[in-house]
Amino acid sequence: MTKMIRSVFLLILFIGTIALPFIHSDAAETKVYQVPLHQEVEKGLHAFLQRSFKEAKAEGAETIVLDIDTPGGFVDAADQIAKLMKTTDDVKIVAFINDRALSAGAFLALYADEIYMTPNGSIGAAQVIDGSGNAAETKANSYWLAQMKNAAKHSGRDPQYALAMANPEIDLPDLRAQKGELLTLTADEAEQVEYSEGTVASFDELLKKLDLEDAQVISTAETFTEKMARFITNPVVVPILLSVASLGLIVELYSPGFGVPGSMGLTALFLFFYGHTVAGLAGYETLILFLLGVALIIAEFFVAGGIAGIFGILAIIGSILLAGTNLAFMAISVLIAIAVALIGAVVIMKFFGKKLHLLNKIILMDTMDTESGYVSNKNRKELLQKVATTITPLYPSGVAEVDGERIDVVSEGRYIESGKEVVIVEVEGFRIVVREKKKEEEQGL
Q: Picking from 166-170, 185-189, 377-381, which range would have the lowest pLDDT averaged per residue?
């Protein structure tokens, strides 16, 4: 009997030893992805979140925790990210407001399945502002209010608070948002109005709240290329980059050879398309259109007429416009770049006296004047101040004789009879100007 008990015990121990790794493996299968949503909400952020969400789904993660700390950002970028969150149905998304979720950050937090906040966290202040820092026009504001309402309804929350975050006309004095003020909720207030499922002090406490303390946490981070793309696609950086490109290329046109200005211009253009391609904003068709434009401009040097150059410039501008999601913003950026280029060209010509060297290959810039050594005929300067006799009347042109030589002359505008003495007062090529001697003497007196 003792021998049998020992055998059974050893068998159980053996089975347990074999099964232990599998039990541990099952526990480790629960995965949580921690994805940071920090700094401004802009176009480059979408590419990073898209990659993180795709990776989480591929790894079989059950929960994605968006670690939010943002002052807000741009409406079009927030719309893209919201669409990404809405289409991620098979993974639970939790917004962990680790300090602040303002403006576009509040909008995105509302698209999460659950919201948790740190004790000092805040959510709200989501009114749309323009580039000057003022409230946006009625059309843009109306659209944003509808978007905030939809975000609240998506997560089953009372939309009046979302609207109060974006509309100062809504009066909520109990929440420090009397008429004229935007609503910003503290952690306690958000929990009170059911805009938060709870308040936690840390990410670890959040995991306990979600019964995920034993889950495998995978933290994602932006790669260098994604950080670069976020910087390059920032709406403040885009017009600066295009202005550097246009100014560098314009300066290069006024310089012999190819040097630093041209290199700067091409580098700026490369960075522009690189950032927008990495961010998923520009496709290969945009790059093809840009390269086609460059090819047409190069062809202009070999094909007369200017048509190839015009189409080349239009193709490059078109590729830049197509590289962004907001056509109006890209158009403004292009206009700024063109204005900078024109100002640069004027400064170079007016203050530095530079000539457009590139056009010398297309247009003849030299003039064939006397000062440059070009003469179309012998210039009879030796005839100046000599006295001639008119053979024919001058009407005002005619023929005169000087030192036995007949020459074609022209008077200063007056009629002179034949047989009159005239003085040669000007010689310019074939044109010999005479004045009646009598008049010459009177002017000398």
A: 377-381
* pLDDT, tens digit (0-9, with 9 covering 90-100), for 342-367: 887 777 777 655 555 444 444 444 55
pLDDT of residue 26: 43
**Cβ(402)–Cβ(425) under 8 Å?**
no
Alpha-carbon span 167 to 383, nearest angstrom: 90
Strands 114-117 and 405-411: unpaired
pLDDT attached to residue 22: 45
* Pairing mode of beta strands 198-199, 397-402: unpaired
Cis peptide before 396 (omega within 30 of 0): yes
Task: State phi, psi for 49 to the nearest 5 degrees.
Answer: -65, -35
Torsion sign (Cα): 103, 109, 115, 119: negative
Q: Note the pTM of the prediction, 2 decimals.
A: 0.63
Report the amino acid identity of residue 90: D
Q: How far is CA 154 from the centre of its chain?
A: 33
Quote the pLDDT of residue 261.
76
Can you give the pLDDT at residue 24?
A: 43
H/E run at residue 186: strand 184-186
Distance CA 165, CA 157 (A): 14
DSSP 396: S
Name which of 68, 120, 126, 62 is nearest 88 in CA terms: 62
Name residues whose C-beta falls within 8 Å of residue 79's C-beta, 6 or more positions apart in sequence: 147
Per-residue confidence band for 20, with pLDDT thresholds at 50, 70 and 90: very low
CB 251 within 8 A of CB 268: no
Number of Cβ atoms within 10 Å of the Cβ of 72:
22
Query: In the structure encoding, which two tokens stand for residue 323, read together?
Result: 């590289």
CA-nearest of 42, 4, 96 to 326 is 42
Amino acid at 416: I
Handedness of CA 268, 270, 273, 278 (dihedral sign): negative
Tokens of 14: 């053996």
Question: Residue 313 carries which side chain, given as an amino acid letter?
Answer: I
Q: Which residues pair with 98 in a beta bridge?
A: none
Question: Which residues are within 8 A (CB) of 18 and not within 5 positions of it... i.e. 6 or more apart?
Answer: none
The predicted pLDDT at position 199 comes to 96
pLDDT greater than 50 at residue 38: yes
Q: What is the pLDDT of residue 256?
A: 59
For the chain, give the mean pLDDT: 82
Q: DSSP label at 135?
A: B
